[in-house]
Write a structure and sequence with these properties.
The chain is α+β, with helices and mostly antiparallel strands. The chain is built from 3 helices and 7 strands, in the order αββββαβββα. The strands form 2 sheets. Strands 1-7-6-5 form a 4-stranded antiparallel β-sheet, with helices on one face. Strand 2 and strand 3 form a beta hairpin. The longest helix is centred in the N-terminal third of the chain and has 37 residues.
């Protein structure tokens, strides 16, 4: 009769499998507890970003003008499970979470994209600039107004350059 302490080969296999199973269960338990702790810390740290002073909502009056917003922009932080979150903030616009930032970044190159709306005000992203308005403009209207503004600025620069050249020519003539 085989020694019970040493066991038959079948008993040794059972001990090995049983021992490794308890080790696997222990590792799995450790992983689950670790993930739960990680998720709890992530959830505890998850908060809405603080609203800067310039972004506090203000009353607005309907206006057909389109204004450049120098305070507008995006920022990124980490939310639940430390996943990236994109937010938009602007003058009079508290942080707004942007769900699909990459597609907006592509679309804004060819058309105006409304980023946020608070009350009557809307914020648009077109090419390299952020604009706000409170007249209920459509994307085509925003594109037209931005291009019109760029043409006016270009004309203003050309006039200033021409006047500087005329002034320089007048100085040359008076010195001759």
């Amino acid at each position: 009769m085989p020694d019970v302490a040493s066991g038959t080969p079948d008993h040794r296999i059972d001990r090995l499998v049983g021992g490794s199973m308890s080790g696997v269960v222990g590792v799995l338990l450790l992983l689950v507890v670790g993930f739960a702790a990680f998720a709890a810390i992530s959830l505890w740290q998850r908060s809405w970003p603080e609203t800067p002073a310039f972004a506090r909502p203000r009353p607005s009056v309907p206006s057909g003008e389109l204004h450049v917003d120098p305070n507008a922009g995006f920022f990124t932080d980490r939310g639940f499970l430390f996943r990236k979150r994109h937010f938009f903030v602007a003058t009079g616009c508290p942080p707004v979470r942007i769900a699909d930032y990459p597609s907006l970044d592509v679309r804004r190159r060819g058309q105006a994209v409304r980023i946020a709306r608070v009350g009557l005000r809307s914020w648009w992203w077109f090419e390299e600039g952020f604009y706000r308005e409170s007249a209920g403009l459509r994307p085509a209207d925003v594109v037209h107004l931005v291009h019109h503004r760029e043409r006016r600025e270009q004309a203003k620069r050309e006039r200033a350059k021409l006047l500087a050249e005329v002034e320089a020519n007048l100085r040359k003539r008076t010195h001759e």
